[in-house]
Amino acid sequence: MIPLCSPQDARRPTALALGSFDGLHAGHRRVIGQAIAGSTAVPTVVSFWPHPREVLFGEARLRLDLPSEKLELLQPLGIEQLVLVPFTPELAQLSAEAFVNTVLLDTLQAQRIVVGANFRFGNKRSGDADLLRQVAAARGVEVLVTEIVEDGNGRMSSSRIRAALDIGDLDTAKSLLGRPYRFRGRVVRGRGLGRELGWPTANLQVDGRKFLPALGVYAAWAWVDGGDQPLAAVMNMGPQPTVDPTSPSAVEVHLLDRTIELEGRQLTVEPVQRLRGQQRFSGLEELSAQIGRDADQARSLLSVQTGVG
């Protein structure tokens, strides 16, 4: 696994791609490819953590890829380290010129810097690609600016991926990401109601900073403890309107035709298709019958897939 490190702990000199790269879509991959092509410096991605808007405005910013997940995605692209610049109120006061000189050029010893055409940085987002080029050029450092990648529906963007996930459109999200959307969590003890109904579920504790798809019931693949074997599953995302309408939203996964003790283990989930939205039923018997229909639909859908992803 490639390392996750601070600017002070990074290997250097660097050839770096600078940006949030949330989702690592085709536009992001182009920036990264240009950063490392033909360079002998350490191939590096540099991002801010936490998101600047969390620090400046107290906004919760959910991520398509958490840093640990991003490491796994960056390594096949040829990146050797992910550098997270701690975003603090003090850093926010730093001018764009000072950020380039102190962080990118002095600390990371960048020999090449690549950004997307819409990249902004520095105090009050005063810095842009042109300013970055000017400041770096004065120190003899190459800066490349990558044009925005577009498809038939507009520019590639993390917001388009989130919009697709917001309505449970996994096919569009997969197309934009260039890979299946997945998340992971640790299985924690639940109320045991699913087991009483004959549908035991794994209750997932997912990092609260992870962007999750629309509430509802999904056909899904699941992997236990990072294993290679995908297991067919049906997943419920959301509260329990029939059992306890006041309960918080939860992620519950039922493995189809498998009985495995999962408590305490790590589960990676790939929702494949949203089967229906959340419903409130007249009682537990009607709920159990619907879960049975959901399981049949998920089993049928997943059985015709030729592979995962």
Would you write up a description of this structure?
- GO terms for molecular function: ATP binding; FMN adenylyltransferase activity; riboflavin kinase activity.
- The protein is 30% helix and 26% strand.
- By secondary structure, it is of the alpha/beta class.
- It folds into 2 domains: 4-155, HUPs (Rossmann fold); 174-303, Beta Barrel (Elongation Factor Tu (Ef-tu), domain 3), CATH 2.40.30.30.
- The strands form 3 sheets. Strands 1-4-3-2-5-6 form a 6-stranded parallel beta sheet, with helices on both faces. Strands 9-10-13-12-11-14 form a 6-stranded antiparallel β-barrel. A two-stranded antiparallel sheet has the order 7-8.
- The longest helix is centred in the C-terminal third of the chain and has 20 residues, at 284-303.
- The radius of gyration is 22 Å and the shape is elongated.
Task: Report a brief summary of the structure.
The protein is an alpha/beta fold and 309 residues long. The chain has 10 helices and 14 strands. 30% of the residues lie in helices and 26% in strands.
